[in-house]
Amino acid sequence: MQDARLIAGSRHLTRPARREDGQPPTDTGAAPSLRRPAAVAAAFTLAQLALVVPGLGLGWDETVYVSQVGPQAPAAFFSAPRARGITFLVAPVAAFTTSVEALRIWLALLSGCGLFLALRVWRRLLPAPLLAAAGALFATLWVTLFYGPQAMPNLWVAYGALAATGFLLRAVRNPADRWALPGLGAGVALAALMRPTDAVWLALPLAVAAPLLRPARRRTLAVLSVLAAGLLLGCAPWIAEAYAQYGGLLARLRRASEIQGHLGWYLAVDDHVRALGGRTLCRPCDVPWRHPLSAVWFLALPLLVAGGVRAATRTRHRAPVVLATATGLVVAAPYLFTVGYAAPRFLLPAYALLALPVAQCLARAARRRTAAVLLAVAATAHLAVQYRILDGVADRVRRDTVTLGRVAAELHAQGVRPPCVVSGEDAVRVAFRTGCASRQPSGHDGSITPRGLAATGQRLPVAVLVSDLGGTPSYARSWRVHPLPDLGHRTGLRAHLSPGAAPAG
Length: 505
Description:
Elements: H1 2-9, H2 30-51, H3 60-67, H4 85-94, H5 100-120, H6 128-139, H7 142-147, H8 154-173, H9 180-194, H10 196-212, H11 217-246, H12 249-259, H13 269-275, H14 296-312, H15 318-337, H16 348-365, H17 369-413, E1 421-424, H18 427-434, E2 437-438, H19 450-459, E3 462-466, E4 480-483, E5 494-497
Parallel strand pairs: 1-2, 1-3
Antiparallel strand pairs: 3-5, 4-5
Helix pairs in contact: 1-6, 1-17, 2-5, 2-6, 4-5, 5-6, 5-8, 6-16, 8-9, 8-10, 8-15, 8-16, 9-10, 9-11, 10-11, 10-15, 11-12, 14-15, 14-16, 15-16, 17-18
């Protein structure tokens, strides 16, 4: 219902007169202009703390990022596509405590502040009620709520993209805006620090738009220079690491493509539709589409966006809404057409930007009383579906968290204690909870040979995890076997324990 009230409230917007310089009027006061977006950001934070944070352990990707700075276990293998941005974000907490709940609270607070600041950038471009409606539409998606308190980069790319797009418009509209150019550079740098390739796609439409918005030539050069500087600054750690560990930038890009299944032409739209039913990763996404209601809003999104652009062309909001739409479509394109699998979090930057034209569309429709009632009903149904999916996803992760704790306890009892090594299925999460290093003799990691792992097992505790899904490696077949609790779809989970692992007592 909050979405409906925010949308309906925009009916009371009046169209203020333009300033003498021909530019749209700025807000007359900071408090009135920011009150509604601030309320949305606060509600977003509280919803995370209540619905997501309690009992939610670290996922596989999160474990990789946190292990780079956490004291709990040796750092997990950091593959070519990953960037260090999210590790920097979690370091102030993860470097000093092993408490996952403390980390979740920290990230929930940060993500709430991030949403507010990203919306605040637009306060001179769009009315506060419209921004609040867009923020509410974005924040109430299950994928936004679920990833708000998680150590994952996509939401932060979304904030960087939203902020950078708004700052670019402010930079070309008002040369006296002292925050516009630094903000543009910071927004692009944030996105690049989190996911460099996403930032490149973000920079493309912004670079094209800068001269089309017809600022002074000197201003265009300044905007393009800042855009390039922000991109290079954010990508610098990733590029430096490419030369230090991969033999160059092109080599790292090739390796990243291999790990992501060889980027190329794929039609992954249907994969994303199926993934919205509650799959955090759909790879390969050959599963049946069991929850059609979960994707109704996604299928309606193109129509709502088109309606918002059409409505905006009749108002002073045309440039902000059109640029947000164009940028959102461009940042979505690589995940819809070049990656052969789906994860709902991939499209968070697109959802954040496209929420603006959708809010514009709904605000115009809500001017009619009948339409406002229908929107209120639709918003209520939408929130119910989003909550149900969120609850199911979070519950599944919580069950895995409990099971992983039992697996770690079993391994400890069997003598797998630091310094130790865990290999095999779900080794990253199990190793982190056990305080061990995770090493794989094949796959993306490939940081040790089978012979090397076998030799390590003679002097240190080594556990090779195997389930009914896969066979036992030859070097571990003679090792002691201990059954473990089933972990999700991994039934028959067991640990092959090396001679270096001696049971307690």
